[in-house]
Amino acid sequence: MFDLEAYLARTRLPLAPTPDAEGLAILQRAHRLAIPFENLDIALGRGIAIDSDSVFAKLVQSQRGGYCFEHGRLFLDALEALGFEARPLLARVWLGGGDEVPPQTHTLALVTIDGQQWIADAGFGAAYSPPMPLSDGEEADAPDGARFRLARDPVFGWMLSRNGDPATTDGRIDAAAEGRGWQRQCSFTLDPVYPNDLILANHWVSTAAESRFVQHRIVSGVLPHGFAGLTDTRYHRRNGEQATEAEITDPRVYRMRLSMMFGIDLSAEEAAMLVGLQAA
């Protein structure tokens, strides 16, 4: 049984959201504000389990974060407990990449409310996109000032694009080279996604040498009007007009930043290992 009370406490929600469009927006926003995105267990030599019990134990009971397959599982379980009709989708992440077709390394939720389909993404670690009705040409604004647009794509099904400040992403967009303007964020189809599809995608993302999550140590969090990220030892934070950027090579500062900014508490040995990987 899903412990809804513990999940609501973790996401700092005093009341359970209603199973409607407003409730979906409230739930996703609270989830992203409270639970960080991170892949640190990969670098620490631990596997990433995405079954409901393991994800709940890590993200809720142990106060850790996770990456998209972990967030996606927890969010779907919460949606079900609240009475929403929802299922997972697989997506290709284009943000910050080139023209080469990316693999399906991301998951988001398709939610049906009163016959209308919505997309909701509680696990996209590179930026924050609000829930949106699945409609060609639909646009929505995020609290950090970015604008999002959904469009049918003749090859990839649906394409979600972003127009916003690169400073409110995880840093994969080069602000000098890209600037503002519409950027492809992710594409997806509405094909059914089965548990083994997610298991296979999660395995590749957490073990393949080509995976961004094997190559880098990534932590990010949504702020009320911005975004904070720690990629390897590069820290950056943007909230409204206030911005901070720094290189963190001292394990003690790295550990403190993880705790104070993202609520992730690691041992001194774990922090030293993560900083040392970058130095090597």
UniProtKB/TrEMBL annotation:
What Pfam families does the entry give? Acetyltransf_2 (PF00797)
Q: Looking at its record, which EC class is this enzyme?
A: transferase
EC annotation from Swiss-Prot or TrEMBL:
2.3.1.118
Query: What keywords sit in the KW lines?
Result: Acyltransferase, Transferase
Gene3D superfamilies registered for this protein in UniProt: Arylamine N-acetyltransferase, Cysteine proteinases
UniProt KW Phosphoprotein keyword: no
Q: From the Swiss-Prot or TrEMBL record, what is one GO molecular function term?
A: N-hydroxyarylamine O-acetyltransferase activity
The similarity annotation says: Belongs to the arylamine N-acetyltransferase family.
This chain belongs to the protein called N-hydroxyarylamine O-acetyltransferase
Species: Sphingomonas vulcanisoli
Organism taxonomic ancestry: Bacteria, Pseudomonadati, Pseudomonadota, Alphaproteobacteria, Sphingomonadales
